[in-house]
Amino acid sequence: MSLAEIDPAAFVENDGLRHDWRRSEIMELFALSFNDLLFEAQTVHRLYFNPNQVQKSRLLSIKTGGCPEDCKYCPQSAHYHTDLPAEKLLEVQAVLAEARAAKDTGASRFCMGAAWRNPKDRDLDKIIAMIKGVKDLGMESCMTLGMLTKEQASRLSEAGLDYYNHNVDTSEEFYSEIITSRTYQDRLDTIDHVRESGMNVCSGGIVGLGEEREDRAGMLMTLANMKQHPESVPINMLVKVEGTPLDNNEDFDVLEFIRTIAVARILMPKSFVRLSAGRESMSGEAQALCFMAGANSIFCGEKLLTTSNPEVDEDDNLFARLGIYPLEMPLNE
Ligand code: SAM
Ligand code: DTB
Ligand code: SF4
Question: How far is ligand 2, taken at its centre, from the CA of residue 38, in Å?
């Protein structure tokens, strides 16, 4: 595809968005010259977003380690020997204290993650109290608790949960190389339950798993061809953790990571694309290119779920150098 053939307006017809991407088209976007791809992504980005505003979410692991799933990238899986001690579900007040601290550092959304295959119904009362407490602080709430039944999704939605994160992680074809304890279809089913419950969908994936570009294109095709694009699309760069099977993977090319962000932005023009895990190993300049490519959300705070993330001061400094400011409270994602 030459640059001349890409008309930004063609991506957005009557305020409708495309949901019929072919992988070959996505591969053509990936193959553009870097400058052409970034220019297109930034052009599409400006149709719907202020290019200098970036939303900040803060993560907290509310139930750490000992997870029965076998995701090969994950330090929390009980299948691998990482140094992470398993803990039980945190108390509501401890979670809310962290949420208050997150708000003080400028986060507009508080994301709570649990290392579960799925939540047990008996845990939901505590989970619901956490959601209500975060709402009362005036923050947006997000949870990622594994697979959900339709009923569980409805209960979380009724409690006021704004977002549910459940990633497709990679392409359908590559998926079984990374996770065998649940299927791609299981993930799509949970995402459907979240969508039907009325909550916003947060779904993305990871690069650097050892996948090919075709798989990155396939992952984005799955997301972009959903009936409704996820409102939030986290793109994670693998954080290598000792003891996990992917610890010895080659370092991933940051320019290819930036391309992945740019293609996500072009395919899903109205979604918040989150520059997620992996920022700690990226230079400020690389992150600046991610923002140029259309990333407009980050995880802030010195910790992700179990691994480290840039310090708040470092991010504040980068934002100041780039003339970027945080989105206080997203109006309507
Ligand atoms: N257990 C829940 C689940 O898997 O749905 C929620 C938490 S899980 C940690 C959320 C996401 O974090 C995963 O789907 C994966 O995309 C990302 N993730 C986990 N470990 C990672 C790592 N080492 N590097 C980058 N991303 C990672
Ligand atoms: C997502 O896509 N990335 C976040 C969030 N959703 C839950 C998690 C990143 C985890 C990185 C590894 C860790 O800190 O354990
Ligand atoms: Fe468990 Fe989630 Fe980690 Fe997979 S990614 S092992 S489901 S915590």
Answer: 26
Compute how many other C-beta atoms are within 10 angstroms of the C-beta atom of residue 198: 11
**Residue 99 Cα distances to 92, 231, 279, angstroms:** 11, 22, 22
- pLDDT of 46: 97
- Could you tell me which residues are beta bridge partners of residue 16? 13
Largest CA distance in the chain: 57
Asked whether the beta carbons of 312 and 277 are under 8 A apart, the reply is: no
Distance of alpha carbon 213 from alpha carbon 106, whole angstroms: 35
Structure tokens at 44: 């599409």
Q: Does the global pTM surpass 0.85?
A: yes
8 A C-beta contact, residue 90 and residue 305: no
- The two tokens of residue 105 are 């550092």
Q: Is the CB of residue 57 below 6 angstroms from any atom belonging to ligand 2?
A: no
The amino acid sitting at 64 is T
- Tell me how far apart the alpha carbons of residues 37 and 3 are, in angstroms, rounded to a whole number: 8
For ligand 2, say whether the CB of 146 is within 6 Å of any of its atoms.
no
pLDDT at residue 105, rounded to an integer: 85
The residues near 164 (Cβ < 8 Å, ≥ 6 apart) are 142, 143, 144, 148, 153, 156, 194, 199, 200, 201, 202
Atom of ligand 3 nearest to the CA of 70: 6
CB-based contact 294:263 (threshold 8 Å): no
Structure tokens at 83: 């140094």
Q: Are 191 and 150 a contacting pair, CB within 8 Å?
A: no
- The Cα 186–Cα 31 span in angstroms is 31
* pLDDT tens profile 213-231: 999 999 999 999 999 999 9
Looking at the annotation, which residues are catalytic? 67, 71, 74, 111, 142, 202, 274
Q: What is the pLDDT of residues 92-130, one digit of tens each?
A: 999 999 999 999 888 889 999 999 999 998 999 999 999
- For 187-203, how does the pLDDT look when each residue is reduced to its tens digit (9 = 90+)? 999 999 999 999 999 99
